[in-house]
């Protein structure tokens, strides 16, 4: 009798764990481990940041941008800012970080990133803008499946002016360093991102 | 009676045929680029064409449109925008916009900046665009025909 009950208990536990496990997996379309990667970059304050290692134990909302972009990238950053504002309004935000990474490091210097944030009145408490060595940003973009191709170049006032055709993306990384979901950067549903962040907290 | 009819005709003739409203511009740093958005309403019975925008805010001012090609976004220059009779065309994020290349100064949130739209029929229309991350809640003051 005891054995039979014990078997039933084991079976029920197994089914419960299976459902729990499959339920967690079905929440997100991706489950890619980024923990082995290390991209050493600089933030808008000139501090060295190791992406994504330094953000372990935090949910990371990552956008891919260049500051000379007049239309699409500002939409992406603005969407990230809207998510940040919504979470801030709800209270605790220490376990969420927003990271905008430049694929145009030649022009996106540390002071320019700082100014970009200031002009948009971004709350920099948990919002980092990253730039760095071209080889490193290229490698990072490749890892995150971001394509950015310089195009539409013209000489303006004696210097080269160019734009990018680029992947329009915001990515979500969980606290363990796994890439879990990707969104359109400029057309993202910010409420959906907030809900997804809550699931990963 | 004659005076009244004449006055009405005069008022109608002097009324702006093109209205450029809801003008706003994205903040950005000197030396970079930014975009200007607006709603352009053609009140006349004939189509009109926006063919240029003048501004001392940047080295170059062009009409552009953003495009989405399977998740990859980019921009291209357009030579002009036709505004059909009695219709409104919106210059908006992710679509058509006025592109300011190599800004001569910082565009700071909350401040206003002037530009002049050039139409084939209506001529020059001067507007004031407020620097913001989003379109103004209400339509801005109607544009003024430049003398």
Would you give an account of this structure?
- The complex is a heterodimer of chains A (201) and B (147).
- Chain A is 37% helix and 29% strand.
- Chain A is an alpha+beta fold and 201 residues long.
- Chain A has a single domain, classed as Glutaredoxin (3-Layer(aba) Sandwich), CATH 3.40.30.10.
- Chain A has a six-stranded mixed beta sheet. A two-stranded antiparallel sheet of chain A has the order 2-3. In chain A, strands 7-8 form a two-stranded antiparallel sheet.
- In chain B, strand 4 and strand 5 form a beta hairpin.
- Chain B is globular and about 60 Å long.
- The model of chain B has no long low-confidence stretch (mean pLDDT 90).
- In chain B, strands 1, 2, 3, 4, 5, 6, 7, 8, 9, 10 and 11 form an eleven-stranded mixed beta sheet that branches.
- Chain B contains one helix and eleven strands.
- The chains are: A alpha+beta (201), B mainly beta (147).
- The interface between A and B is medium-sized, with 33 and 34 residues.
Question: Strand tally of chain B, please?
Answer: 11
Compute the gyration radius of chain B: what is it?
Answer: 17 Å
Q: Kindly, what is the distance between the CA atoms of the first and last residues of chain A, rounded to a whole number of angstroms? A: 42 Å
Average pLDDT of chain B, to the nearest integer? Answer: 90
Q: Mind summarizing the main beta sheet of chain B? A: 11 strands, mixed
Strand content range of chain B: over 45%
- By secondary-structure content and strand pairing, the structural class of chain B works out as mainly beta
Please identify, by name, the CATH architecture of chain A. Answer: 3-Layer(aba) Sandwich
What order do the helices and strands of chain A follow?
HEEEEHEHEHEEEEH
Question: What overall geometry of chain B do the principal axes of the alpha carbons give?
Answer: globular
Give me the Rg of chain A, rounded: 20 Å
